[in-house]
Each structure stands twice: as structure tokens, then as C-alpha cells.
Amino acid sequence: MRRAAAEPDRARARVAELDGGGAAAPERLHETGRAGHVLGFLLRRHALPVAVVHGEDELPDAGDRCYGPPRCLTPEQVRAGADALTALSPGALVDGVDPAELAAAVALPAGWTEEDAPHLASGHYRALADFLRTAARYRQAVLVWTE
After folding, report:
1. Pair 70, 143: CB distance under 8 Å
2. Model pTM greater than 0.85?
3. Contact 146, 58 (CB under 8 A)
4. The pLDDT of residue 10
5. Strand order through the sheet with 142-144
6. Helices in the chain by DSSP H: which ranges?
7. Confidence band of 128 (pLDDT split at 50, 70, 90)
8. Which residue has the higher pLDDT, 55 or 23?
9. What are phi and psi of 12, to 5 degrees?
10. 3-class SS at 125?
11. CA distance 22 to 113
């Protein structure tokens, strides 16, 4: 985990290698892309037990990566996050969200409109939930860094 945090390009190359040199296997790498801040905002509204988008514990001596140091989720935290996401449907994630409030709270990704943001975020949410469920099934820790 620490080595991957210290050498993110090497970590990504290793994931691609494990996938046969193609695109990274979805069970080994998940990118929220520019939807990360939107998902973080939406998930905080539901008081999840784990910060699944931005991670929990900082990795010591890992350095800073644009938006702070890399963080991790232990296998137990991954399980808690996966269970929480399983209990929260994509519809419930965005239920009652005022699109204007969302747009005021976080910078929407390029091409997203206020009206479309909740719907687009729910698609990214499904992919994140699937990734965490797979990691939990294999009792994997998750390394989180934001670029």
C-alpha cells in the first residue's frame, strides 16, 4: 500500500500489467474522475460510516498528490463502506437533492448541468458501489488518491 502511494504511476502500470496490458481491470482500479467531489457531497448527506470517495487514514510519508496525501481504506473499512452503499440505492442517494444547492456546494464537472448532475452522479455511484463490493468480497484494502 505504501509503495503504491509513493509511486502512483508504477501502481497504475502494475494494475495494467495484471490486466494483460490493457485497460485496468475494473475490480483493481476505480476512478470517480471529476464526479468525486459531487459523490463526496452526496454521500456526506447520508452519514456513511466510512469516507469511501476520499479515503480515511493518511498514508504516512506518502507525500502530497494535488488534493492532499493518499489515503486508504482497510479491508474492514471497505466492507463497512460496501455494506453502506448496498443499503443506499442510487435513487435514495439523490432523493431530495436541490440541484442548485449541489451546484453551489461543489464545482460541477465540465459538461454537467445543474439539472443533470443528480442523475449523472447516480451512474458514477453505481460504479463505485460495484467496485467496493468486489474489493470487500476479496477482503482487499483500497488506496485512494485524488489527482
Report:
1. yes
2. no
3. no
4. 75
5. 57-58, 71-73, 142-144
6. 2-6, 8-18, 36-44, 75-87, 90-94, 99-105, 117-137
7. very high
8. 55
9. -65, -40
10. helix
11. 33
Contact 57, 144 (CB under 8 A): no
| Dist CA 137 CA 19 (whole Å) | 19
Q: Which residue has the higher pLDDT, 68 or 123?
A: 123
pLDDT tens column, 97-127: 999 999 999 988 889 999 999 989 999 999 9
**Location of C-alpha cell 465540465:** 110
Which of the four pLDDT bands, split at 50, 70 and 90, describes residue 93? very high
Judge contact between 12 and 22, C-beta under 8 A: no
Instruction: Report d(CA 97, CA 44) in Å as an integer.
Output: 12
Domains in the chain, number: 1
**Residue-number span of the structural domain to which 102 is assigned:** 2-144
**From CA 16, how far away is CA 125, in angstroms rounded?**
23
Q: State the Cα–Cα distance between residues 121 and 13, nearest whole angstrom.
A: 28
CATH number, domain at 129? 3.40.1760
